[in-house]
């Protein structure tokens, strides 16, 4: 592994983590925001939802822009907007203003989610791409490990407004690294055929590509399982199991450690078994673990250590599912990698939003509805994989 390979992974991972950092670091601040701005909890949660909505939909714009303008220009635009919106969030005097600036923050943060995946596809394919993607996710996983802990510490000393100044500083660091350390991977001669019209045609192509959609939804259902946990875990672990906010931050971080540790084996296992076979095995184990968790908890063994053990194993295996499904989905779309990455990201978040809403309808303050939502997402990924992947020549050829 060369130094430049590792440096690229670190930079892309940090750029990718800026948006999620603004989610994970924000979670411990929700109660204090409600008290300070005089808003009900469900209204405060709209500030989280507004970020999710703009974060998901804006990816559809950044993808084509990165194909037309190159990778760096849209990153400057998005991360710059994110930094300015973070200042607006920190200075908000009422919940409505905060919701608006969170929406703008999501628009900016979406650039860091879409474009790094396209850069990976510009540089590599196959196992090398999977290795770079897994390294990117190693850095990306810093967010759910450090963000809640950092958020709790910042809130303790500087209040909830300090959270937004902290993510603004992270965005400025990202802009500096982008300017000084990352080269343009889509040169001008590769952009000549990229237009708004070609982007629309590319979206039509992708939406008719069963292979791309299948792999995207497999990854999306895996991500959905984690976002169901993210949305419900503060209430389950703190209110139901009685953890303190700091204990919750540690519990939340443990699953991220498992995820990124296992994801680092993607390149080696991909060379040994092939990416398609590796993904099939990982999805099977992921579903088996999460469905078993729900069954065991339904039988009355619903203590926190039991749930935590299943989640640790399940989210570890998910560290193999996400990079392999992403690499395979982009494999055949190098010329429109930005657009493909954008549609993939949007579909991931739309799938996650649906899963979060359905789970919230049945949430009763206990751990079982959350476990059911996680298990259903994992089972869905397994069923889609079994029904499609490995039975189309085009997918097998990517192996």
UniProtKB/TrEMBL annotation:
UniProt keyword Transmembrane present: yes
Bilayer disposition of the protein: Multi-pass membrane protein
TM region(s), chain numbering: 5-23, 43-62, 74-93, 99-120, 132-151, 163-182, 212-230, 250-269, 281-301, 307-330, 342-363, 369-389
CDD domains, sorted: MFS_MdfA_MDR_like
Predominant localisation class: membrane
Domain Major facilitator superfamily (MFS) profile, first and last residues per copy: 5-389
The keyword Zinc is annotated on this UniProt entry: no
Keywords: Cell inner membrane, Cell membrane, Membrane, Transmembrane, Transmembrane helix, Transport
Subcellular location: Cell inner membrane; Cell membrane
InterPro entries membership: Efflux_drug-R_Bcr/CmlA (IPR004812), MFS (IPR011701), MFS_dom (IPR020846), MFS_trans_sf (IPR036259)
NCBIfam families, alphabetized: efflux_Bcr_CflA (TIGR00710)
Family of the protein in this entry: Belongs to the major facilitator superfamily. Bcr/CmlA family.
Protein name stated in the entry: Bcr/CflA family efflux transporter
Organism: Sinorhizobium garamanticum
């Amino acid at each position: 592994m060369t130094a430049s390979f590792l440096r690229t992974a670190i930079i892309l991972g940090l750029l990718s983590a800026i948006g999620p950092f603004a989610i994970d670091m924000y979670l411990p601040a929700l109660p204090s925001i409600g008290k300070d701005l005089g808003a009900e909890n469900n209204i405060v949660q709209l500030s989280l939802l507004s970020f999710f909505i703009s974060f998901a939909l804006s990816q559809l714009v950044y993808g084509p822009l990165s194909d037309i303008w190159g990778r760096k220009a849209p990153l400057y635009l998005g991360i710059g907007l994110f930094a300015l919106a973070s200042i607006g969030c920190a200075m908000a005097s009422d919940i409505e203003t905060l919701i608006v600036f969170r929406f703008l923050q999501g628009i900016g943060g979406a650039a860091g989610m879409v474009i790094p995946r396209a850069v990976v596809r510009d540089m590599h394919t196959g196992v090398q791409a999977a290795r770079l993607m897994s390294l990117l996710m190693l850095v990306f996983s810093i967010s759910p490990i450090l963000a809640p802990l950092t958020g709790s510490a910042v809130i303790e000393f500087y209040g909830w407004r300090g959270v937004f100044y902290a993510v603004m500083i992270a965005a400025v660091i990202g802009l500096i690294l982008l300017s000084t350390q990352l080269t343009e991977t889509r040169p001008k001669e590769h952009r000549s055929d990229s237009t708004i019209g070609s982007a629309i045609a590319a979206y039509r192509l992708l939406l008719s590509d069963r292979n791309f959609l299948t792999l995207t939804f497999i990854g999306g259902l895996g991500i959905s399982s984690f976002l169901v946990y993210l949305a419900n875990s503060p209430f389950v672990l703190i209110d139901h199991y009685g953890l303190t906010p700091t204990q919750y931050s540690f519990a939340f971080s443990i699953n991220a450690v498992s995820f990124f540790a296992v994801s680092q084996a993607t390149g080696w296992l991909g060379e040994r078994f092939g990416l398609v076979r590796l993904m099939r095995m990982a999805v099977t184990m992921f579903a088996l673990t999460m469905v078993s968790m729900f069954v065991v908890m339904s039988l009355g063994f619903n203590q926190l250590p039991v749930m935590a053990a299943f989640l640790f194993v399940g989210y570890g295996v998910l560290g193999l599912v996400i990079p392999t499904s992403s690499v395979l989905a982009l494999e055949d779309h190098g010329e429109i990698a930005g657009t493909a990455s954008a549609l993939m990201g949007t579909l991931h978040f739309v799938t996650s939003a649906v899963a979060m809403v359905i789970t919230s309808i049945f949430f009763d303050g206990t751990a079982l509805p959350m476990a059911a939502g996680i298990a259903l997402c994992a089972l869905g990924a397994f069923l889609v994989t079994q029904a499609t992947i490995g039975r189309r020549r085009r997918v097998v050829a990517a192996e």
